[in-house]
Amino acid sequence: MRKGVMRPGHVQLRVLNIQDALAHYRDLLGLIEVETDALGRVYLKGWTEVDKFSVVLRESDTPGMDFMAFKVLNEATLDRLHQDLLGYGVAVEDIPAGELNGCGRRLRFVAPTGHQFELFAEKEQPGRYGVGNHNPEAWPRDLTGMKAQRFDHCLLYGDDLDGTFALFKDVLGFDLCEQVLTPDGERVAQFLTVSMKSHDVAFIKHAEKNKFHHASFFLETWEDVLRAGDLISMTDTAIDIGPTRHGITHGQTIYFFDPSGNRNEVFCGGDSFYPDHAPITWDADKLGKAIFYHDRQLNERFLTALT
Q1: pLDDT value at position 298?
Q2: Using 50, 70 and 90 to split pLDDT, how confident is the model at 304?
Q3: Active-site pick, 10, 115, 206, 214
Q4: Is 265 a known active-site residue?
Q5: Is 186 a catalytic residue?
Q6: Catalytic residue at 199?
Q7: Which of 35, 111, 118, 245 could form a disulfide linkage to 69, CB 3.0–4.6 angstroms apart?
Q8: Exposed (0-12), middle (13-18) or buried (19+): which is 209, by Cβ within 10 Å?
Q9: What are the φ and ψ backbone dihedral angles of 18, each rounded to 5 degrees?
Q10: Name one Pfam family in it (predicted).
Q11: What CA–CA distance (Å, rounded) separates 63 from 18?
């Protein structure tokens, strides 16, 4: 049952050097640089996103993800979810409005996998970059790089998938879209959605808590994904795998790394999901085909390169 969580709102990533990261996320991925705040954090967005930002980069000694946030319907929904989280036994930190530029108050909590998540209801909405909301053109003419349209989802690695699924399902109203099960029924991968997308966040079983696998950005067409592969080679960017197709979600994809070692994905396509759909199940011994449909096997780097 949906509880008023609408969609992914933003992700804050740790990077080792802000200028190197900007060359990657702005110039190569094609995100729009919005501003830099007093703490040195840089805000970016995809050109189709109406909110002020969806990616925040913070310079740090270690790479990885600080937190991922979801936008909820309104302030009343945020208040209700605050009480629901507390009633479920989850500690909640109240982050005041303005701590992130242009964003209202946020509720921060830690999932059983060890990852930090946030909920918020308000964020400035300047509209789609370069085209606006009134008689818009098809696309802005000054886009660069891969021309990423939006921040789409994260894949995260952690230990307690069952506890995290229960929290996201029972309190936040997410649905299970796809899963990978071992022969004895243990869920080792889960793809959760709160929209019509094939997933808004996903988790894979891992012995350590709070590991970041990738942040994903949506492109419009398979030709755009292939062009992204060309740009990765042109810029000598470290590549993981692709272009190829997923079995899970059926999206077309390519994986690569930012200069700090954080993995990114750009993809197009993917299945649609409705709340009356039963979860799609993959057997664990078919995981290679589930993740990389063409090669039908996982490379070691995909499983072990985490931040």
Answers
A1: 65
A2: confident
A3: 214
A4: yes
A5: no
A6: yes
A7: 118
A8: middle
A9: -65, -40
A10: Diox-like_N
A11: 12
